[in-house]
Structure formats: C-alpha cells, structure tokens
Amino acid sequence: MTENVNPSPLANAAGAEHEVVRELHLQFGAEVLVFQTTLDNVPTLWVQREKLIDILAFLRKLPRPYVMLYDLSAIDERLRQNRLGAPSLDYTVFYHLISIERNSDIRIKVALKEGDLNLPTAIGIWPNANWYEREVWDLFGVVFQGHPNLSRILLPRTWEGHPLRKDYPARATEFDPFKLNAAKQDLEQESLLFKPEEWGMKRGTDTEDYMFLNLGPNHPSAHGAFRIVLQLDGEEIIDCVPDIGYHHRGAEKMAERQSWHSYIPYTDRIDYLGGVMNNMPYVLAVEKLAGITVPDRVSTIRIMLSEFFRITSHLLYLGTYIQDVGGMSPVFYMFTDRMKAYDVIEAITGFRMHPAWFRIGGLASDLPKGWERLVREFVEWMPARLKEYEKAALQNSILKARSIGVAQYNSTEALAWGVTGPGLRATGIDFDLRKARPYSGYENFEFEVPLGNNGDAYDRSMLRLEEMRQSVRIITQCLNNMPAGPYKADHPLTCPPPKERTLQDIETLITHFLSVSWGPIMPANESCQLIEATKGINSYYLTSDGSTMSYRTRIRTPSFPHLQQIPSVIRGSMIPDLIAYLGSIDFVMADVDR
Known about the structure:
Helix content is about 40%, strand content about 15%.
C-alpha cells in the first residue's frame, strides 16, 4: 500500500473492538493499518507492502498465535466501482489467518499497482503459502519474491496469460479458434516431462542413480486425475512432487458471469461427493450480503441434508480406503448403505448426487409427504451397520498393520500445512466449526466431536466412522424436532422469490420476472462463510459490486492444502505407505483444482 492511502479514524475505531487489532496497533502503530468493515465480522486490515512480512510474522508468534494460513488469494480491482473505502489501486492480495486458541480469524490485505505486482513470499512463516502463492501467480500474475519455484500450478506450463484478471476472456467463444499443429503438440508433450532439477532434486549420488516414478495422472489409487512424481531409492520415497490441475474448470471465473442464483449448481461440482453441503457456504455468504435471515425450518432442513451427504461421502471414503490397502469386500456393503441414503435424498430433493437444492433465502421446495418415514427407516438401519463395519473391517489385523503409524503427523505440522477437518482432529485438536462457530442452527443440536491421538492413517479412518454415528444422531434430532413454518424467507432478495408475490399487482409480477431472469442485485460489500464440510473447512469469500453477478468469488477448499502436505509426511516411507496415505486423506480432485 502506498503513501496516498490514509487511515480512516472511524474505521480504525471500529477495528479496535477486536483484540488482535489492538495488539497490532500497539506493535506497529495505527498509521500503518487501515481497518475495513465487512459483513462477515472478520477483522480486515490493509497494510503497507513493506510491513507485510513483519506483520504476518508477528501474528504467527503472538502468545495465542494465528497458527494457520487458511487462505491466500487475490482480486483484480480495476473494474470495481464500490471500493468501500479501500485504496484506489489495481490489485489486492489477501491473507486469511486462523487462531485455534482464540477461535478467531484475521484478514490482511495488500494493495498493488498494475505495473508493480510484487510481494515477498510468506513461505518462511507458513510452508503452505507455497501452493497458494503459485496459484496467485498462475491466475493473476503477482510475483512473490523469494519463492523457490514460482511456476504454473493449475494451468499447463505453456499457458499464456492470467485467467482471473478482468481483461481475460471468460467464455470460449471470446477466444480465437483453437488449433493444434504437430509443433505445438510436441511442445505440449515436452512441457509434461518431469525435470528433477527444477524441483531441487538430484538425479543420483556418486554411487547410484535415483529412480523417478510417475504415479498417475490416472492411477486408480490417486482418487482422480492426480499425478505425483516419486523420487525413489529402491522402494523408499526420498522425495515427491504432487502435480495438480488436470481437473481445473475455472469455477471462480465462471462465478463472474453467472447470476447469484444460477451459480448454485456449479457449487455442487466442487466437492462432488458433498452434494448440497457445497451449497451451504455459498448461500450463507450470499444471505449475509442480502441481509436475509431464513426461517428455523430452513436451517434445520439444511442441516439434515448436509449430514446425509456427510454420511454418503464418508461411506465412499471408508470403502475405497479399505480397498486401497487390500480389503475388497467392505466397499460393496458400504455402497449398499450409500444407496439407501441417496434414496432418501432423492425422495426429498428430486436428485441424488447433485441436487443443487439450497436457494438464496431458503430451499427449492418444502419436505415432501412421507419424508419422516424414509428418514426414520434410515437412522434405525445405520447404527448397526456402522458397528458391523468397525468390528469386521476396521478391527481387521491386516488393515491395522497397514495403517497404524503410517503417514503420521502431529498437530503442529497439521496447522502449519493448513490441514482441517478429520485430518486435523485425528491429531487431537478439537476444532469443528459446527461446535466452535455454529452456523445454520448447529448450536441447537447435541453431538460429540470425535478426536484421534496419533494423527496416522488409522486414526483418520476411525474418526470418520465416529463422525457418521454423530451425523445419524443429528439427523435423528432433525427428524424429531422439525420446526413448522415456510421453506423460504419473506425477503425481496430471495431467489426465486415467493411465487405468491406475483399475484398481488403488476409491479410484483415484474419484480418476480426480473429476479428469476436476471437474478437479484446484491448490495456492494464483502462476506465470507466457513463451514465444516465432509473433507475439512470449505468457504466462499464473495465480493459484490452491487450487481446481479459476483465481482469475485473465492472458493477455499480443504483438499488443496491436504495434497500440498504429502511430501513432508511421506518422505522416508515406502510406496505402499503412500497408497494408504492417499486413501486416508479423503480428497477428490474437483475439490483441489476447482
């Protein structure tokens, strides 16, 4: 940030309500910090570029530190009309940090000019800044000085341009026709070759050569189009390089060309095993922008369907994980139970894997007649099955031998790499957003947060089994205590709006038509919503410029940092341990690549 940005006394007074802002003021002085008010109540501070690393290091070393770099991304501000008191510059890079001890976040922003897109790397403070900085360079062109390998991460190495810039085309029809000649094809093939020297790897020692093995990008144990290159000494993994981006679809760019309402189905395809749970952070963030409070019935139904999808996701995880380590039978039994859950989901929403059923301000429809019987049959069926899985599969001596002590990491390492969800709780840290920061009414439910002790592959599998038991418990409470009331808020920005509004007069009919065809216009502001998704913490950080579409949609997924952690955990292990580790992470590549 440059010298022409002056702090707002009023804004800084508002920021002083937050303990961490007071600590920063005492250390660095109020004149270098500009507080920005956002609808998500995360203290947001603009800082000078020259002070950035000092401020980040200070936050990391506080007595109750901000131990996790939760997210790091950027915004192209050049076309933004409503800057909400932010500096009038070209690009913003933001750092979203989490303190477990404080149960609080802070967002640090730096403003950059178009001709000077340079920042110092934060890898020395948080190792997981590596991939996030590469992503920002890949999609925005911001250079991070001191980064060990600032290269493309989601796009091919031969790609030209930075797609999340506002002057980059958003549709295929805006490009010239694609042509692939022999020379270009050879260049593309050449770019896929792995060169160890680029990653700081040696090809061998004075007495022997290392072997480099490609695992993927279509290996069945990779759980999607994922490639990992292994540096081997015999079967021992000396080092490895995860290679992502094969599944990249530009979901964040798509959000800039879809209405707030029509973008909902795209969210289903992020963690494609999470179903409506993907809708949850998006619609909650939009509802913050709109000022919508949904009825209790809506909140309860959202929780019930989300927990159904937690069960279906965990069943797939557990079955395929056991299959990865050699057990073939359990996956067939678990898919049977998945089908039973999907039968209930389909009866309620009309679809199975991708219902896109949540709406801004409510739901697509109310619960159908007979839903109680279907849900009750499922919650009465499932507990005995889970007990059987624990006894027959997870207590199996071969599974325990293959996974206990394998791919083990502690809580300090997990926080440094941005691990959330079961992967973090398996190390003993009690941090589940449904308890720590209840949303959508989770504070009204009784359930436990399962914890592990060893942080190994076995703990991660046992923990998910216990989570399914708690999900059944939550669904049962939804069944027995479902509130009465409407399935949509009575608010002008709900979408689609209540149909009865069309029957009053011509003005309401016109408003209904515009809300459905163009979508609602959200007030200019920013909001972020974090949820405890199936694989960890998922969030949407939305920037509205007072339009029918999002100005910037940032999707933070849990699987992205989880894959970045792989080399630090698996070095010195054997190849079969890597297969068990990949299975225990529980990732899908759409959640990584977006």
